[in-house]
Each structure stands twice: as C-alpha cells, then as structure tokens.
Specification:
There is one protein chain. Helices cover 49% and strands 12% of the residues. By secondary structure, the protein is α/β, with parallel strands linked by helices. Among the domains are: 135 residues, 3-Layer(aba) Sandwich (Rossmann fold); 99 residues, Hect, E3 ligase catalytic domain fold (Alpha-Beta Complex); 49 residues. A four-stranded parallel beta sheet has the order 2-1-3-4, with helices on both faces. It has a three-stranded mixed beta sheet with strand order 9-13-14, covered by helices on one side. The protein has a three-stranded antiparallel beta sheet with strand order 10-11-12. α11 runs antiparallel to α16 and α13 packs antiparallel against α14. The protein is globular and about 100 Å long.
Length: 538
C-alpha cells in the first residue's frame, strides 16, 4: 500500500527548528574605551565572524556592537538592540560572535538568554569555538563557556577587591569621591588626596544646623539654596549618615570594620554622633529582602525529616544571620555561618581533590560519552566520506571548466548548483548528526579543571551565581538533619556524582586501572548521559 495516503496523520513540527533559516547577524564588542580606540580587536572579531559566515554560507542581514560594552551585565545597549532585532523577526537563524565571552560573561543569565533564543529557532554560534548547539552535548559545552567566562570575571573581581580592601584598611577611600570633596591626585594606582571644596564648606554648615538646632531637612535645603548650593532634602539624609564626613571610612568591602581615614574630616565625631542620635529616634525596623546576599540557601535547604524549607532572618543587635525551619512551632535555628561551612564541606565531596586526577577522569567521561554516541559518530564518518566525494566532484567540475575548458558555461551552470545544494545538505546533516568529538574532550577537561574550584566558585559568586551552582549540582535542593547537624542530598547531578564516586578509586587511577573504574562509572547507564546545565529560573 502507498504510504502517501497516511500523510494526513503525520505530526506537525512543534516550534521553530534551531538554525533552520540560513540567515544571521554578527555581534562584536570590546570591554573598554581603550580597546575601542585601538580598534584592533573589533577588526579581528569582525573578520573572523565574516569568514565564518562565508564558510558556512550564511547570509548576514545586520551587524551589531562594534563598540565597547562591559559584559558583566546583559543590559548593554547594543546587545539589547541586537536581541530586540532578532526576536522581532522570524527569519533569523544565527547570532555569530567571535567567542562566547563576547556574547556574555554573566554565566547563568547568559546561558538562559541563549536557551530562550534556541526556543525561537536562533542559535548563538562562535567563530572560534565551533560546537553543535543543537545537541545536548553541544549545549553542555556552550554552557561551560558561559560559566567559565563568568568565573574568570569573578576571579578578576576578587583580585581587584583584595587590592581595594587593603587600600581602604590603610585609610584611603576608593571609588568616586563623596560630595563636598575633590581628589587632587586622580589616576589609577595613585594615592588619592581628598580636599574639601566650597560646596563642602557649605555642607559643613548644614551638619552644624542639624546638630545644634535639629532643623528639618527641608529648611536646611532652603538655607543652602540661598547660599548658592542647590541640594535636595532627601539627599541630605544620606549625607548626614555617612561617617566619611567625620574622618572615618566604612565600606561593604570591609564589613564590620571602621577605619580612621587619611582625609580631612568635615565635622567632628561628636557632631556626627549627635546627628545620628537625632535621625534614629523612633526609627522603624529595617526590612530585609527575600533575596538577601547573606542567605543564599533560603528555600534551597529543606528539613530531611518533614521536607519543610528553611527561611532566614537577622539578629540586628549582633548583625548575625540565621536559617530557620518555617514549620509552625519549629525551633530549628541554625547559624548561617555554620550552615554555609557545612554546605561547602558537602560541595567539597563533589570536587576533584588533586589536579593530577583530571587527566584519567577526562578519559573516563570522554570515553563514556563516545560509547553512548557510537551511532552518531558512525553517521558522521559516513557523511564525511560522502561530503569528500561531493567536494571532489565540485573540484573536478571547476577544473574541467576553468582550467581545461572541456565544458561550456551552460554545462557548468547546469551541474554546479545541484552539487552545491548536495554539499550544503551534507554539511547540515554533519552539524546535526551528534556530538562534536573534536571539541568534546577539551570541554570535559575544562569542566573538570573548574570542578577543582567548586567551593571557591560558590564563595566568590554573587547571589545568582551561588544559586546557579547549588541547583546545578543538587537539582532538587538539599536536606538538613537538624538533630544530628548533617547536610543530606536528595539528588546529585550525574557528572558530579561520578566525581564523588571516583574519590575512592584514585589509587587505581594512579596504577592505570581505568577499566574497572570505567565499568563502575555512574555515567554508564541505560538512561544515557545528561550533562549538567545551569539552572536559570532562580
């Protein structure tokens, strides 16, 4: 029976296929004005992206970027303009970037944006890091690039912050100088010299009016305006609360510390404290946001007995944070500092103790993935052979027409389009046929390298980074046994579970007994391998 009669029952395509359209946009950027003025990097990026588009026969419809934008945030003007452009059009298949850190360095958020674009049929591809983003293995590799770029930012930030902390502790303010002062010795690496300006002298008068007469801020603002200083009453509240004006330095980079500054004080400490007492009389209690940087494990930790999640609070008098089981009548309170320490110990069980084990683990995980994708790899070999034959036919046709003059132009035009179409179809099939074995081992090795620093990555990360790591390693959260003060796991991501399971087999690795370890690997399962991805819905 002819099966065409059953075509009416075939399922329709759901959504848009990734990269279905053979069209693209190019996005380039540098991080600083100095790089932009030099322009060498932008020129190089554009050249590689254009060559990639030409090689893949992609039609570039528009160009974005071409300027300096920091990728610490995804709220970049050119980046957002590019996203609005591709989202409004249904004919865009690709966003071409020089490398994935040019697209984003925000880690989880960058991976989330890329995933949302895929749902619209748009693939983010790198001209220098070729991976197949249409497969789970390719998505894993792309997410790794996003995560590593973000980690690199965090490490750089940590080094910068270390220097800033030391400078603050020596009594030198960092960053923009406060209102009423000017820095007479500006420049990176120079010791600042803060001098009181004419505006600062008027501001000093405002402090004295408040301290001696308890004038309202509105009245003080009006008096200052009469003297030529136009300042809002609301802003005065912030200025009156800043200890910098009495010669002291406090900063979130040195929490809990008060340092005597090297700058000239605008007012005495006695005057500042007098104003402080006036401002805090009858002050309502502070409200603390659910998304508190000091409580990243909120709602992630649940009671291992009843499953009730833990929330958090602060003891204001001591400035100490605690987690609390939200079950009615529960008296389970745990110091945030202690619970974080216990969680870091748990993370440490899923990290690699020594970098010397990265090589054997890389081989095991790589070989496992290769074994689970044998069929796809065989298809790649077959398609590669067919593509080689088509390329040879194209070269022969061009040689007969251009060099030997054996065929006419009409004969050349008759056969070449068909061969080019076949060539393109085979290239597309190869791109979609499975994992990229050439880049896979490198990606696995890179991932394991960063697994050595998993606790450090959590400690250095901001709130979103901490939560992304938590859900990446423990997708269902973690349990807490309050009675025994033990952290327990509900479910561990396969790749990190594999690292933990190898902890007792490192001696075998040193002896070279990889086979027995490989057979016991939790990655070798009937269900296949599911690579870890960053949880973006936080």
């Amino acid at each position: 029976m002819n099966l065409e009669v059953f075509d009416q029952f075939a399922k329709k395509e759901k959504g848009r296929v990734i990269g279905k359209n053979n069209t693209a946009v190019i996005y380039t950027r540098v991080s600083s004005k100095e790089q932009f003025d030099n322009n060498a990097s932008l020129t190089t990026q554009l050249k590689y992206c254009q060559e990639y588009a030409l090689r893949k026969e992609l039609d570039v419809l528009e160009y974005f970027g071409g300027t300096y934008e920091s990728a610490k945030s995804d709220e970049r003007r050119e980046f957002q303009r590019m996203l609005h452009y591709v989202k409004r059009r249904k004919n865009i298949g690709y966003i071409i970037v020089y490398s994935y850190d040019r697209f984003s360095r925000t880690g989880a958020n960058g991976a989330y944006i890329s995933e949302q674009l895929k749902k619209q049929g748009i693939a983010v591809i790198s001209a220098t890091q070729e991976i197949d983003v249409t497969t789970s293995a390719g998505t894993f590799q792309e997410n790794l690039y996003h995560m590593f770029s973000h980690f690199d930012n965090q490490v750089r930030r940590d080094k910068s912050i270390t220097g800033m902390r030391e400078k603050l502790r020596r009594g030198y303010w960092t960053g923009a100088y406060p209102f009423g002062y000017t820095n007479t010795n500006p420049g990176k690496g120079k010791t600042p010299n803060f001098v009181i300006t004419e505006e600062g002298k008027l501001l000093k008068q405002a402090f004295l009016w408040k301290a001696n007469s308890n004038m309202s801020h509105v009245e003080i603002a009006e008096r200052l305006k009469e003297k030529g200083l136009d300042i809002k009453a609301k802003r005065l509240t912030d200025l009156f609360r800043n200890p910098f004006y009495c010669g002291l330095i406090v900063n979130s980079l040195i929490p809990g510390e008060v340092v005597q500054g090297k700058h000239e004080a605008l007012i005495s400490k006695e005057v500042f404290l007098r104003i402080h007492n006036l401002l805090h009389t009858g002050e309502p209690p502070k409200k603390y946001s659910f998304d508190d940087e000091n409580l990243p494990l909120k709602m992630f930790v649940r009671s291992s007995v009843c499953g009730t999640p833990y929330t958090g609070y602060i003891v204001k008098a001591k400035g100490l944070y605690y987690y609390k089981n939200r079950r009615k009548g529960s008296k389970e309170n745990r110091s945030a500092k202690k619970l974080h320490k216990e969680f870091l110990s748990l993370l440490d069980r899923y990290t690699i103790a020594d970098k010397k084990y990265i090589a054997p683990l890389t081989d095991i995980i790589h070989d496992t993935l290769i074994d689970k994708n044998q069929e796809a790899l065989e298809d790649q070999k077959r398609l590669a052979k067919e593509l080689e034959q088509v390329n040879e036919r194209i070269n022969t046709l061009e040689r007969r027409y251009v060099v030997l003059n054996e065929i006419t132009k009409s004969q050349y035009d008759l056969f070449m389009p068909e061969l080019k179409t076949e060539q393109r179809e085979l290239e597309v099939k190869m791109e979609n046929s499975g994992i990229n074995s050439s880049n896979l081992k490198k990606s696995v090795k890179l991932a394991l390298g960063y697994a050595c620093n998993l606790p450090l990555l959590w400690k250095l990360g901001d709130l979103n980074t901490k939560r992304a790591i938590q859900y990446m390693v423990f997708p269902d959260g973690i349990g807490y046994d309050f009675k025994n003060k033990l952290v327990r796991t509900f479910r561990v991501n396969e790749i990190f579970g594999a690292i933990s399971s190898f902890s007792g087999s490192f001696k075998d690795m040193e002896k070279g007994s990889f086979h027995s370890i490989y057979e016991k690997s939790p990655l070798v399962t009937a269900g296949g391998f599911e690579p870890p991805t960053l949880r973006a819905e936080i």
